[in-house]
Amino acid sequence: MKGIEDMLAMAQNVQAELEKAQANLDHIEVEGASGGGLVKVRASAKGRIIGVAIDDSLMQPTEKQMLEDLIAAALNDARAKADAASSAEMAKMTSGLPLPPGFKLPF
């Protein structure tokens, strides 16, 4: 039964490492931008929005629709970058694990 015990120990180690990696994702920051940098959104690699910066030139009532579109685009850009940072971080963590080909982690 030594093989099963080794597998269980390895599974516990993998779980601990994954939990540590997930906790670390909230400390990695990315920035999404739109409108040539007129709207910027900072987010964690977990997708938590940290901050939004809007250039003063967009603070006109006539620019409301464009501002809304730029905010949505910046949020989407930040989310895409957060996903990429998360994937890269998880890939680094799992690179040494003996996972079967094509195995997807639940994150």
Provide structural commentary.
The protein is 51% helix and 17% strand. It is α+β, with helices and mostly antiparallel strands and 107 residues long. The protein has a single domain, classed as Nucleoid-associated protein YbaB-like domain (Ybab, Chain: A, 2-Layer Sandwich), CATH 3.30.1310.10. It has a 3-stranded antiparallel beta sheet with strand order 1-2-3. Helix 1 packs antiparallel against helix 2 (64-94). The mean pLDDT is 84.
Beta-strand residue percentage? 15-25%
Residue share in helix: 40-55%
Query: How many strand units?
Result: 3
Number of domains: 1
List the topology elements:
Elements: H1 2-25, E1 29-34, E2 39-44, E3 49-54, H2 64-94
Antiparallel strand pairs: 1-2, 2-3
Helix pairs in contact: 1-2
Provide a brief overview of the structure:
With 107 residues, this protein is α+β, with helices and mostly antiparallel strands. It has two helices and three strands. α1 (2-25) runs antiparallel to α2 (64-94).
Characteristics:
107 residues; Ybab, Chain: A
